[in-house]
Amino acid sequence: MPSSFTERLSRGILLSDGAMGTQLYARGGRGVGPCLDALNLSQPELVRGIHLDYLRAGAELIKTNTFGASAIRLAAHGLAGRVADINRAGVAIAQEARRLTGQELWVAGAIGPVGRDVSQYGVVRSASAQ
């Protein structure tokens, strides 16, 4: 693997995986309600299989199945207390897929919008801006 992500990008286009949620639905994955992130705990083999298919297709970067795994979004499904478990499982599944293939690739954490107005929480600053 190149020494850094930036170095790899300097060599040209990097192929990433595709829509995890679409693949989960297509393969019959059903989370808690519409919460597909919970499948990291209940059906890890399904999530791993999707990662492996993307890797076999040539992806060099796969994203974790954690797009909606924030406390705010998970609370809507009664899973706010499982945020760490779901996110850790999502990372572990992606890393296991990398290990199984032995391929040179990156694992990126998928982070989606929280799905509602969060202005009540005040101004959000990045860690680097503080």
Describe what this molecule looks like in 3D.
The protein is mainly alpha-helical and 130 residues long. Helix content is 42%, strand content 5%. Strands 1-2 form a two-stranded parallel sheet. The longest helix is centred in the last third of the chain and has 19 residues. The relative contact order is 0.17.
Keywords:
130 residues, mainly alpha, 6 helices, 2 strands, 42% helix, globular
Helix and strand layout, with pairings?
Layout lengths: L4 H6 L9 H7 L12 H4 L1 H13 L4 E3 L7 H5 L7 H19 L4 E3 L22
Parallel strand pairs: 1-2
What's the total count of β strands? 2
Structural class: mainly alpha
Overall body shape = globular
Instruction: Count up the helices.
Output: 6
If you average the pLDDT, what whole number results?
89
Secondary-structure element sequence?
HHHHEHHE
Distance between the termini: 33 Å
Q: Order of strands across the widest beta sheet? A: 1-2
* Beta-strand content bin: under 5%
Radius of gyration: 16 Å
Helix fraction? 40-55%
Which residues sit in consecutive blocks of at least 5 with pLDDT less than 50? none
Quaternary form? single chain
Main pleated-sheet profile: 2 strands, parallel
